[in-house]
Amino acid sequence: MNCTKWKAFGKASVLALAALAFSNDAEAQKGKWVTLFDGKSLNGWHSWQQDKVLPQWKIEDGAVVLAEKGGKDLVTDKEYGDFELELEWKISEGGNSGIIYHVVEDKKYCCPYSTGPEIQVLDDVKHPDAKAGKEGNHKSGSLYDMLPPSDFSAVKPAGEWNKARVVIKGGKGESWLNGKKVVEFPTQGAEWDKLVANSKFKTWQGFGASSKGKIALQDHGDKVSYRNIRIKEL
């Protein structure tokens, strides 16, 4: 082999090895818990369609807190497809927020809930939204405006910490609240289309259409706290 061919072969080999290493590293990350919020910084997050976190989102006692309206939804820098998300949330009295997944961050959409389905975070006792919707599908843990939680007693009252778990895998989803699976739902296909058609989102172009996207914590104008946020890609 002449010198020119050897150099070309060597370069190709290095590139192939680098690509293999990158692929192996990506695979290695799957199935491992990754901390999204360590209680100290908001690296890896930004306010919706901003290049920074707006000051209404603060860090207090190891939690990220929406102290007042105007922070916009807090959005991950990274997109996720299939995943398992765990976090704890505490809502203020009469408060409203939500955990939104598969968010498409595009200027043509007003907000994360334009595209991303929401797991409800709410004071079920004092917020009027708890009595809206159908059969409780606006209450805490619900797939908002589509499916209610199976156990309305799973939630803890305003001012107390609740542990949420959201699993999205293989076209199916689960919402867990304080150790109880409260909702099972499809994320695609005919059954999903039926859920959307029977909801307020039936005419929303792009709602629930993406198989991957960012995760958002909602600014609904009320004080809410989140902590111990971690995710595992599946």
UniProtKB/TrEMBL annotation:
One of its GO terms (molecular function) is hydrolase activity. The keyword Membrane does not apply. Keywords: Signal. The keyword Signal applies. It comes from the Bacteria. It holds the Pfam family 3keto-disac_hyd. Residues 32-232 form the 3-keto-alpha-glucoside-1,2-lyase/3-keto-2-hydroxy-glucal hydratase domain. Residues 1-28 form the signal peptide. This is 3-keto-alpha-glucoside-1,2-lyase/3-keto-2-hydroxy-glucal hydratase domain-containing protein. It comes from Dyadobacter fermentans (strain ATCC 700827 / DSM 18053 / CIP 107007 / KCTC 52180 / NS114). The lineage of its organism: Bacteria, Pseudomonadati, Bacteroidota, Cytophagia, Cytophagales.
